[in-house]
Specification:
The chain is mainly alpha-helical. The chain is built from eleven helices and no strands.
Length: 177
């Protein structure tokens, strides 16, 4: 029998996160929000959180796309706590939770200060790396590398463009005759 644990590479980022962060605090914080003896059983809030975490970590902005990615990506599925055969919650689960439970949640003040109760990310997770690249590019070494790139790579690229355009014009001329 195939074990999902064996399918995720040992050096995968999600393995390192799983080993570093204890997500059990989510269950502790959300336990008072769920009634165990009413309605149908709830979805595990830790799994839902981990699904959203994967989305933020990998830049998957659409909840529908996120559900599809978790459905097909073994590492995402493993990290969120699903087996290979477990059904993945529908994308509407997230919007329903936001609409129904977040407005009355006693923990809302800890999550967001926005008037519309939406968590807004003002800084992209790669912003620091992009700033480092920009600073490196503006350094003396970066300027020298950029100059060399213009002399070699871009010259070669222009040459390829000329060859491609010549081929296209030649082919067009052959078609017109």
């Amino acid at each position: 029998m195939v074990n999902i644990e064996d399918l995720v590479p040992e050096d995968h980022l999600l393995r390192r996160i799983q080993a570093t962060i204890d997500f059990s605090f989510i269950a502790d914080k959300t336990r008072p929000l769920y009634a165990e003896d009413q309605g149908r059983p709830c979805l595990d809030p830790v799994k839902l959180f981990k699904m959203l975490f994967v989305g933020y970590l990998y830049g998957i902005l659409s909840e529908q796309r996120l559900v599809e990615e978790i459905r097909v990506n073994v590492a995402y599925r493993w990290f969120a706590g699903f087996s290979l055969t477990d059904p993945i919650p529908h994308a509407s689960t997230f919007s329903q939770n936001r609409r129904q439970q977040c407005q009355a949640c006693p923990l809302l003040a800890q999550c967001t200060h926005a008037k519309n109760h939406v968590k807004t990310v003002n800084r992209h997770v790669w912003k620091d790396a992009k700033e480092w690249v920009r600073q490196n590019r503006l350094s003396e070494r970066g300027k020298a590398l950029h100059k060399r790139r213009k002399e070699t790579i871009e010259r070669g690229f222009r040459r390829c463009q000329r060859v491609a355009w010549t081929t296209i014009r030649t082919d067009e001329g052959a078609c017109q005759k």
